[in-house]
Design a protein that fits this description.
The chain is of the alpha+beta class and 339 residues long. It has a single domain (5-337), classed as ATP-grasp fold, B domain (D-amino Acid Aminotransferase, Chain A, domain 1), CATH 3.30.470. The chain is 34% helix and 24% strand. The protein has helices spanning 44-61, 109-116, 138-141, 181-188, 193-213, 256-265, 267-283, 301-319, 329-337, and strands at 5-11, 19-25, 68-73, 76-78, 89-94, 102-103, 106-107, 119-121, 124-132, 159-170, 217-228, 231-235, 245-248, 251-252. The strands form 3 sheets. Strands 8, 9, 10, 11, 12, 13 and 14 form a 7-stranded antiparallel beta sheet that branches. Strands 1-2-5-3-4 form a 5-stranded antiparallel beta sheet, with helices on one face. A hairpin with a 2-residue loop joins strand 11 and strand 12. Helix 1 (44-61) runs parallel beside helix 8 (301-319) and helix 8 (301-319) runs antiparallel to helix 9 (329-337). It is globular and about 50 Å long.
Length: 339
């Protein structure tokens, strides 16, 4: 189980074959790698399920291999446009996730791949960026010239990139870290790094185009992939308000809204998280949460209501279906703009 969705296993994967199961999307949310937060946001899970299903169907129409089999409605696996109510369950092919042994923050990927064989979830997140906002960690890892910008230093405001930038970060480590291409190649195992990048760029293009049709600007996101007998398939969920960042008329329409709200209203907890992460790195501790001196507070009711409407209205606009009883996207955006 992840912090926001659960697994159902019908047939477990083996070294020789993929299994079958499903994701069940909950209304929980997570920010700053904390895990499950004190609140839930109604309609959030179904919104993510619908967006993810829509994107997988768009990808498969372009011949991109994925682990998606459909959404579950009335006990049947169906295409998204065949359901009458918002789906919460997504049928998928299952791969294997071997243990990743570690001592402190030193991870043994050789042991991971020895157990993985030819059927495993690639232990990487492949990140793509179309825009670099203020505060983005990319600003500390690259110069503007290295990402195609004609600037000697980073602009004070957010900046659009002339071409998308693709990066690789760890997937299963307690504190995610960005990787050099050589290190990412080693961690990917048998999965070809160039193929992973190609898939990320294709997903980015498909999501960007669909977002534009819905009046949204697609800023960045990530994919995860599985490797099975020489083939790389897009896995997990893609192009949702949790995995990606979107904007509408300059306002964020994604989990970033609630992330920034916490930064403004729960400064003590945010500082404790930053201190714990820094201390964990200095002391070679894998799980930084054990060092955190504070916990997040629940959200106010009006914030939960605003986020519920934002997820639902955004999903309606993105998939082009009236799945949810929600305000127009423009109205939902104006409400969260005032939080």
């Amino acid at each position: 189980m992840t912090s926001v969705k659960e697994f159902r296993v019908e047939e477990p994967a083996t070294p020789e074959r993929l299994g079958r199961g499903s994701f069940v999307f909950t209304d929980d949310y997570s920010v700053f790698d904390w895990g499950k937060m004190p609140d839930s946001i109604p309609n959030k899970g179904a919104s993510l399920c619908a967006m993810g299903a829509n994107n997988f169907e768009l990808l498969e129409a372009e011949g991109v291999p994925t682990h998606y089999r459909g959404v579950v409605s009335g006990g049947q696996v169906r295409e998204l446009d065949r359901v009458g109510s918002p789906p919460r369950e997504m049928a998928i092919d299952l791969t294997r996730v071997p243990d990743l042994p570690h001592e402190g923050r030193r991870y043994d990927y050789d042991a991971f791949h020895e157990a993985a064989g030819e059927n495993y979830l690639v232990p990487l997140e492949i990140v793509f960026r179309n825009r670099v906002p203020v505060g983005s960690s990319l600003r500390s890892r690259a110069t503007p010239e290295e990402v195609g910008l004609d600037h000697e230093s980073w602009p004070e405001d957010a900046v659009d990139l002339p071409d998308p930038v693709v990066e690789f970060s760890t997937k299963f480590e307690e504190s995610d870290r960005y990787l050099s291409r050589a290190e990412a190649d080693r961690i990917a195992g048998s999965a070809d790094l160039s193929r992973l990048e190609e898939l990320a760029r294709t997903v980015n293009r498909v999501v960007t185009d669909r977002a534009a049709e819905a009046g949204l600007t697609h800023e960045d996101g990530k994919i995860e992939c599985l490797y099975f007998r020489g083939e790389v398939r897009v896995a997990d969920v893609v192009g949702t308000f949790d995995e990606n960042r979107f904007a509408y008329d300059g306002q964020q329409v994604s989990k970033e809204v609630i992330r920034q709200y916490h930064k403004r209203t729960q400064t003590e907890w945010i500082e404790a998280v930053e201190d714990a992460k820094a201390r964990a790195e200095a002391e070679d501790v894998a799980d930084w949460r054990t060092l955190c001196a504070a916990e997040p507070e629940p959200l106010s009711g009006h914030v939960i209501d605003a986020m519920r409407d934002l997820y639902a209205a955004g999903a309606n606009a993105y998939v082009g279906m009236d799945l949810f009883d929600a305000p127009d996207l423009a109205d939902a955006v104006e409400t969260v703009r005032e939080l």
